[in-house]
Amino acid sequence: MMPVSLIPAFLIYCFVGGITPGPANLCSLSAALRYGRGPALKQWRGLFVGFFLVSMGAVAVTYCLGTLLSGYVGWLAWMGAAYLLWMAWHMLRSAGVTAAESDPSYPSFRNGLLLQLTNVKVIIFCLTALSGYVLPYRQSLPWLLAVGLFLPFTGPVANLVWLFAGASLQKIFQDHRKTVDVVMAVSLALCALSLVWPH
User: Fold this and answer.
1) Half-sphere exposure of 18 toward its Cβ, with a 13 Å CA cutoff?
2) Alpha-carbon distance 180 to 186, whole Å?
3) CA 195, CA 199: separation in Å to the nearest integer?
4) What is the rounded CA–CA span in Å between residue 38 and residue 1?
5) pTM, 2 dp
6) What is the rounded CA–CA span in Å between residue 10 and residue 133?
7) Is there a contact between 130 and 147 (Cβ–Cβ < 8 Å)?
8) pLDDT in tens, 149-194
9) Residue 54 · residue 125 · CB < 8 Å
10) What is the pLDDT of residues 77-128, one digit of tens each?
């Protein structure tokens, strides 16, 4: 796969890419703060499945389509930004109010899945891991699949850290729900902006 000397760098890349703030981590934190651990874990299951699908898609793209990727990342960035803005809007509209399960912003498997499927941070994370740490050393599908199967245990585990932090802080923030909702909505909007704003 990769030289043994690169494995620590790869693992650090996975840790930093997974634990740093991004759409999925912020949504996990927000869901746990607003609704508690149970509903947030439903959303996390969708995040995990979405990450797995993105990772397997990255394996296929890296193996088969390599050079065609750049044109699609731009569209995915705009789709992801639109979805994040939609979530931020619903969060702002319901700021300070505990939503019912029928509310579109209520944590659900579907919301988690859609978030990950349009999460450009995850797409680029997976593609970079595969093209930077595997392809220069092995171009075979089994090696790409092995790393692709490992990747869903990086980001989603970091999402759990944010989720459990939110669940443990939920009682503290109960009196400041509206402020927390506004801060989370603004954070999601900034994530959306960073996906499409030229660097």
Assistant:
1) 22
2) 10
3) 10
4) 39
5) 0.73
6) 7
7) yes
8) 999 999 999 999 999 988 888 777 767 777 777 877 787 677 677 6
9) no
10) 576 667 667 767 876 776 655 555 556 667 889 999 999 998 888 988 888 8
Q: What one-character DSSP code corresponds to residue 176?
A: G
Higher pLDDT, 188 or 1: 188
Total residues found in the chain within this entry: 199
Q: Which of 117, 139, 5, 166 shows the shortest CA–CA distance to 59?
A: 139
Phi, psi of 11 (to 5 degrees): -65, -40
Three-state DSSP at 3 gives coil
The per-residue pLDDT for 167 is: 86
The position carrying tokens 């797995």 is 52
Q: In 3-state terms, the chain is what percent helix, strand and coil (to 5)?
A: 80, 0, 20
Structure tokens that stand for 164 in this block: 């459990």
* 60-63-65 Cα angle (round to 5): 80
Give the separation between CA 70 and CA 168, rounded to whole angstroms.
Answer: 40
Give the tokens for residue 72.
């699609």
Instruction: Give dist(CA 173, CA 33) in Å, integer.
Output: 7
Structure tokens given for 78: 């705009």
